[in-house]
Structures are given as C-alpha cells and as structure tokens.
Sequence to fold (646 residues):
Amino acid sequence: MYLPTGTFNETYKQDMAIIRHREHWMVIVFLFIICTLLFLFVSDSILGIINLMGITIISALGLQFLLGFAGQISTAHAAFMAVGAYTSAILAVNGIPFGFSIICASFVSGIVGIMFGWPSIRIKGFYLLMSTFAAQLIIIYSIDNVLVSLTRGTLGHSAPSPRIGEFIINTERRWFILIISILVVSTLVLNNLKRTKVGRAAIAIRDNDLAAEVMGICLWRYKLLAFFICCCYAGLAGALYAHWQSSVVSEAFDLMQSIWYLGYLIVGGLGSIAGCFFGVILIIALQEGVTRLFSSLGSSYPEAINMISTTRPIFFGVVVALFLIFEPRGLAHRWEVVKTYYRSWPFPYISKE
Amino acid sequence: MQFFIQNLIIGIAVGGIYALIALGFVLIYKSTGILNMAQGGLLAIGAFICFTLATQGGMPFILATILALLISFLIGVFVDRTFFRPMIGQPLIAAIMMTLALLFILDGVVISLWGAQYRKFPQIFPDRPILLGPFALSHELFFNFVIAGVLTAIFILFFRFSRTGTKMRAVACDQQAARAAGINVRRIFTLSWGIGTMIATLGGICLGMITMVFTGLSYSALKVLPVVILGGMESIPGAIAGGLIIGVMESLSGGYIDPYLKGSKEVTPFVVLIIFLVAKPYGLFGLRRIERI
Fold:
C-alpha cells in the first residue's frame, strides 16, 4: 500500500482519516459532478437503470461484508432482501412512516439472517453453501405459502410511495437523490466497519478461522454478527426496491437472483468495497446494453426479442467464467494496479509486483 | 396403514433414483473436491439429448440412451478442460462460482435449443401399474428403481475393483501422494467429470421418464443436494442411504402434509437438511475433517 509522493501522515488522526490526500478529494469532486450531471441531464429510463444499480450496490455491500470480509458464503441473499421488502411494505401499508419502516425491515432481515446463519457456527465451505441454499428455498416458500395472510402469497403486496414530510418520492429523479444518499451513508458505514474491531475479526476469520479462534476471537459471535450485518444491508436494499417498484413479488427474489449477487462480487473483486461498485455497474450496464441491442434488432428480426430472456443466463455465466479464469481478483485488482501506476508514475518499476 | 405403506414404496422407488443422481455429485466431489452445482444442468442437457435422439433421430430407446451417455461423457471432458482445469489451486469460492456460472450457461443452452415446453419420452412401459399385494407401483418407477440400483452397484464395483477406480480413490484420498505414486491426477479429474456427467444423464433419463422432459429437471437435481449432505459428501453408501431417506420423506410429506400446506413436498428435505446440519455437520457417513494450521 503506497501513498502518493509528498503525503505524510504526521498524526494518528491523519492516518485514520477516510479522505487522506488530494487524489481522494479529486475522486470525490469528480463523483459529485457526475451525480449532478446525471440528475440534471439524463432521461428517466436511464435514471431508472442507475437507481436499480444503486439499490443493487447497497445489497451487494452487505454480501461483500459476509463473503469478502468474513469469508462465509451465502446463496440466500435475495431471500433476505425479500424479507426486508415484505416487512417494509406491510408496515408502510399499515401507516408506519417510511424512515421507520425501512429501519424495521433491515432489522427483521438481520434477525432472520442470524436464524439461518446459525449452522455457520459448525460448518463451512460447501456445507454452508447448502444450508444457505436451503434458507433461500425455505424463506421464499414461507412467503408464498405459509404467511399468506400477511404477504398475500404469490399475488404480491403493494408498497406505497414514501413520504418524507410534505415531499412524496414518486419520480425516478426523486428516487435518485434518496438512493444515492442512502448509498453514500451505507458505504461509509461499511468502510468504517471494515477497520474497526468487528471488521478485523471478520477478516481474521476469513483468512483462517482456527487461527482466529486460537487468537481469542469468539467465532460464533462474529460469524453471526457478519450474517446480521449482511442481512441488514439486504433488508434495507429490499425495502428500497419494494417502495421503488411500488409493489413486491417474491418472484423478484429467486435463487437465480441470489447467484447473480455472488457474480457481482466475483466480477468486482472479493474483499473490496470499490469492487461492489465496479461489479454491479459493469454487469448491469452490459446486460442493459445487450437487452437494448436485441430489442433494436427486433425490428428487423422478430426472433431476437425472444432471445433476450434465453441469452441472459448464458451471458452472465460466460462473463463470470471468463473473470474467474482470466482475472480471479476482479476489477478491483485492476483498479489497484492503475492506482499504483499513477502513484509511482515516473518510476514504473515500483508498480511491478 | 395402507396409505402409509403405499407412500413408503413410492418413496423408496424415487429415492433409488435420487441415490443415483447423488452418486454423480459424490463421484466428482470425491476426486476433485468440487461440489458440482451444475450437475442439474448436465442432467437436463443429457435428458434432452436422449429425448432428441429417440424422437427426432428415430432410434430405439436403448440405442438412444447409450449414444446420449457417450455424448455426455464428451461434454463432461469438455467441461473439465475448459472450466475446471484453470480452477486447480484457486480458492474454494472460485470453484463454487464456476459451477454456478456453468449452471447458468447450461440452463441457457437448454432453453435456447429446446424451448420451455414440456415433452414426454416415447412410451416404452405398459400403462397399468405393477401390483405388489394390495399396493400399486407404476412400471416406470419400478424399472427405473431397478436400473438405478443395478447401475449404482456397477459403479461401486468399479470403484472397488477396477484399476481406474482404484486410482480414482487414491486421488480422492490424497492428491499429492497419488501423484507421487505415478498416477496422472489431471487425467483422473477429466475421467471423473466424464463419468459424473454420464451418471447425471442417466439420472436425467430416469427422472424424465417418471415426470417429463423439461427445463425444470435441472432444479430437480438441486433437490438431490440434501441427499448428498445427509449422507456425507465423501461417502457412496451415504449417498444411497440419503437418497432413500429423502425419497421416503418427500413422499410421506407429500401424502400427509401437502393437503394442508401446498407444495410442502419441495421444502421438507431442506428443512430436515438445516436441522441436520446443526446437529450433525458432517452427515451420516462423512469424514470428520481434522484441520491443521
């Protein structure tokens, strides 16, 4: 980890600051300008895609903590989102204000996450994969069949547009502000979590759980905490998704969706917060690009329209497989390479690992 | 009582087929250390190939099955060479994601080649059921159970006594020691994938004859995963026992709980799985791993 030339951290406070040098300021100003430009000049349909990306990133951040930092795999991420989505929708319909309902949703999701993370105390690897796989099926089944009186089963549940004071959030442009601000806050929270006691314990568990336990880290507490944090993020994202779509159907949170989340992290890079952003943005942008390409072909070749849904899984599989073979450390690693090159610019031999 | 025994018999028959599919998972896991989540995709594609050969190719069913098995062996070899050879030495999560990516690719290929319709294998067994005293069992189910049982026995004998089978067990036991003893480990990996895919295809054909041939077959294989976990992932007897237990449980919950709770048949194995994992994490017959730091 190199700092740019001329950056000296003279106090502990400087060393721990999130924004430490000029380049950080440049990136932040650049991102702020981009967001403003997007808000002012982009059409509603594209803003809709960006909102989807934002919600997906919030959710992916949670999975990043569980998988990238704590090293526990979960194939039930979409199901945990569904829990949050339904909780928030049900509360909002009963007149609970928006801010409170999404916090409740995230908390309920976290509790459900602890329940299904329980087996992780004793198992890992493929066995954990299977238990979360079971969690996905059981949660979606309960929503569809067992809790019908609450969730209205497969019909779906309506979720009213949120109202903050006199301000009703019902257009893509208003949603954009809300989602981006929640995204910024949740990124900061995760970034801080990563370097506190919890985050360091999680990383120790990922690297070697037995060694971590020997060093005095309470395994079960931190594993369950990792599940709780992951599911809080999932619940928050799910609640946002429900209100954004103004309805919630369990089909939107199926097993395939959970696997897509794992794919985002693989493409973006495990164990990196920036990686979540890269992975989600790349895959959703590519996917939208392919969809639009096929629909524009549809005017001359009608079969192309049908191919959209069938080629999506192939496309996803191929992208993930290519990344695993050629760049297993994901886009985040590429980004690190670029950064190192910039920092050591006149002396290119430093950037060679 | 009669209702109970009837469900029990059906459960055992279906469980036999589950055991066969579980064997495919165990085989690949034992030698390569990868739990192949894409087994379902391979199963569906095998069933569809056999279906196409039997209906559009106009072949007799036995010939179509044998040809489909050969083709699926080649698919398995291809999958190993392109997807899993680069995964040697990579962390576990990479291998898991690779199998999931493969599952997506295979699902997409099946949908784009054969569409989402339900198809039926040509009828080769008579329609009326076999009567075992007061209990009835359809011909398909009975013969599939027999076929699955015979094949499982053949595979067990193959592992136990043939030279290649012994090599496979050696690789499963310790890759480095096997390599030192002069076994070509990569070739064993390729062979395991080939044979694992063949088993998947057989399972697909058996399942396809009981239900239908459709894209959801790939999901049916995922339903077998609790079987593999229940038995312990390294254990062939475990796969058989797990297959029978899950088959019976599914059939009984289909008979007793389904009238009150629609579709409980699909989830019961998974509920049992989670309880089981908390209580006995390495399955009935699985190896208890001793780790060193």
In short: The longest strand of chain A covers residues 157-158.
